[in-house]
Amino acid sequence: MSDNLSAWILTIGNEIINGVITDTNRENIARELRSAGIFIRGMSSVGDVETEIVEALECAMGKANLTIVSGGLGPTEDDKTAQSAAVFLGQPVELNEEQLRRIQDRFAKWGRTMSPSNAKQAMLPKSSIPIPNDYGTAPGFAIERSNKHALFFPGIPSELIPMLRHQGLPLVWTRLGGSRKVFRNKTVIVYGLSESRLGEILSDISKDADNCHLAFLPRFPVIRLRIDASGENEGEANRVMSEKQDQIRQRIPENVISEDGTPIEEVVIRGLEDNNLTLTLAESITGGLMGEMLTRVPGASTTFMGSIVSYSNEMKKNILGVSFETIGRWGAVSHECAREMAVGARMAGGSSVGLSVTGIAGPDGGSPEKPVGTFYIGLSTEDAVISRRYFLPGARNWVKTLAAMQALDLLRRSFLGLRLHGDSD
Amino acid sequence: MSDNLSAWILTIGNEIINGVITDTNRENIARELRSAGIFIRGMSSVGDVETEIVEALECAMGKANLTIVSGGLGPTEDDKTAQSAAVFLGQPVELNEEQLRRIQDRFAKWGRTMSPSNAKQAMLPKSSIPIPNDYGTAPGFAIERSNKHALFFPGIPSELIPMLRHQGLPLVWTRLGGSRKVFRNKTVIVYGLSESRLGEILSDISKDADNCHLAFLPRFPVIRLRIDASGENEGEANRVMSEKQDQIRQRIPENVISEDGTPIEEVVIRGLEDNNLTLTLAESITGGLMGEMLTRVPGASTTFMGSIVSYSNEMKKNILGVSFETIGRWGAVSHECAREMAVGARMAGGSSVGLSVTGIAGPDGGSPEKPVGTFYIGLSTEDAVISRRYFLPGARNWVKTLAAMQALDLLRRSFLGLRLHGDSD
Question: What is the pTM of this model?
Answer without folding.
Answer: 0.81
